[in-house]
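Marked as duplicate of an earlier ticket. Keeping the data here for the record.
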Amino acid sequence: MHEASDFRSPRWLSSTGLALTIALAGFGSSACVDVEGMDPASPQRGPGELVGNGAPITDGNFPGGYDEPPAPNDAVPPTEAPIECDVVCQDYCESLALTNPVNRGVCTNLWGVGLATQPVDRRQACRKLYADMVGRYPTPAELNGVCNNEDWSETVKALMATDEFVLVQQRRWADLMLYNNRIVNVERIFDQDDLVRKAYQGYVPWDLFAAVTASHPVLVRRYDTAGDRAEAAFRLFLHRPPYESERSDMARLYAVWTNGYREHSHLGTVPDAYVNYNCVLGSDGQDADAGACTSVLWGHNKLTLEPDDRRENSGEQEGIMWSGYMTADEWEAVQLPGRIMAQETIFWEAAVDDVLMQYLGYDLGTEVQAVRHELVTYLLENEADIRSVHYAVATSIPYLQSSQGYDDSEFRWTFGPLKQIAPEGWLDSIKRTTGADLATCDHRISHPEDYLDEDMGANGWTFALINNSRWIINEDRDLVTDYRGLAQTLGGCPTNEIGGRFTTVSILNTAVQEAYVAEVCDPALQGGGVSASILLPEGMDASTALTADVAQEIVARQTRLFYGREPSEYEIAQVEGYADQCTPKPCTAESFARPTCFALLSSAEMLFY
C-alpha cells in the first residue's frame, strides 16, 4: 500500500463570470497492487484510494440555512409564465436579507411578485427530510427528538452526519453507474463506492470526484469503445450527450482503455480495465502517435503513457497493462477527461441541478435560473463541497413547504414536492417500525450468489466478502433473498444488467405490496405477523374487549407509529363505525389492530411523501 497525497483545486468567480482553474498536484509514485492479505471486509482497490485521505475540505458548518418564510410582496401575483420582476419586486427581495441561496434565487419569482408558499407542519417536514436524506420514514422517537430542533438547519446537519445519508448517495451512484460484479471487478466497485463516501463526508471536492469517477475502471470497463466512454462521462457530469465532434475528440483521451479479464488469487477470473500504449514516448522523447491521444476542442490536451518493465514482467498481452499496475502519476494522467469537463460552467450547473432534482423532483434550476446561479456560486464558495448544496436545498423554503395547493398554482415552487418513496425506503420503514424479519440487499454486489457457489470457485475469502457485506447469510450458509425478491419486483435492488431501477405504480406492484403487508400484519388472524404488542398501545392486552374507545386508542397508536402524526378528526370519526363492523364478534383488541395495520401500511401515505 502506498501513502497517497491529497490534493484540491483552487476555485473562484471572476468579475466577468465563472472561472475555474484546476491545479492538481501529483498523487505520488507508487500504486497499491498487492493481492495477498487483502481484507474481505475492505476489498476496495483502485484510484479512489489515492484521494480524500487528508482532512475534510470544509468543517461542514455551511453559511445560510433555514429562513423563516417571508410574507409575499403587496402586488398582484402572476397567473402564468413568464414572470417579470420589476424594480419594486427586486427591492423587496433585497430587503428580506435571505441567507439561503435557493431562497435568494427564487424570491424574484415568488415572494417578490406577490406569490406565497404553503406552510408545512413539523411532522410533514421531518417525514420529507428523513425519506430524502436517510432513505426511510422517521420513527416516533426521531420525530420527537432529531426533528424537534427549533431551527431546521440543525436537523438537516444531524441527518447529513449519519451513515444512512451517505448510503442513500452511494445507492444513487450505484444506479447511475450501474454497478454489476459480472461486468466490473468487484474490488473496483467497492473503490468507487468508497470514493462516493469520501465526497459526501466532505473529503473530496466535486471536481476531483468527477475527475476520478470519469476515468474509473467502474465506468470505463462498463463500455466497449472510447466513444461510448466519452458519451457516458458527458451524460453523467454534463447532463447531455456530446456532439459528434465532442464525442470523437474526447474519445481520443479514452483511447488508452481496453477491456479484459484477469486471474485473481481469491475471486477467480474477473473482468477488469486495462490500459494500452497507443500513444507512447519514443526513444527520442517524442510521441510516436500524438494525434491519436490528443484532445483539441478544449485546448491542447495530450495524454501519453510510458511503458516500463511492469508490463514486460506481468505476462500481459503485448501493448496493454492491467490497471492494477498503474502508478499514482498515471492515474492522474488518465483522469484528464474529468478535469476538462470540470472547467465548463455546465459541469457545475449539472451538479446543483442533480441535487435540486433529488430533493424537489423537478428542474427548478431551469425553471428559475437564478436558483442555479446562486447554488453554483455557493458551491464554489464552499470549496466545491457537494454537501453544501444538499444543505442549502434541504433547508430551503421551496423544499420545506406543504405539497398542498398543487391544483391551485401554475408554479411548482409555490408548493412542496410530492414524490414516491423508493422500494428500499418503504421496506426499511416497515422493518424499523414493526420489527419484521426481513434481510437487505447490497448495491455493491448485484450477484452475491456468484461468490457462494462452490462450482464457481467459492472459497473462504469469497464467503467472507459476502458475510462482511450488507447481504445476509443464514446458518446454513445460504443467501437470504426475501428482501431482494420484494424490492426487485417493486423496482429496487437492481442487478444492472442493462438498465437500472424503475419507479412505477401498477396492479402487480399493488398486489406484491399488499401481500407483504398482509404477511406483516396478519389481518385474517392466521397466527402469523408481527407481535401484537407492537400494534397495540402500551400495556393493552391482545384479548381486551373491543370498544369505541379501545379502537380509537389503537388507531392513534398505529397512526403515530407509521405516519408520525395524530389521527385526523375525520379518521377519529370513522373509527367507531369500523369497530362496529369488526367480525366475528365479540372482537378483541388484536382482531381490530391487525386489519388496521394492514389498512395503514398499504395506504398511499406510506408510498408517497
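See parent ticket for discussion. The first strand starts at residue 11 and ends at 14.
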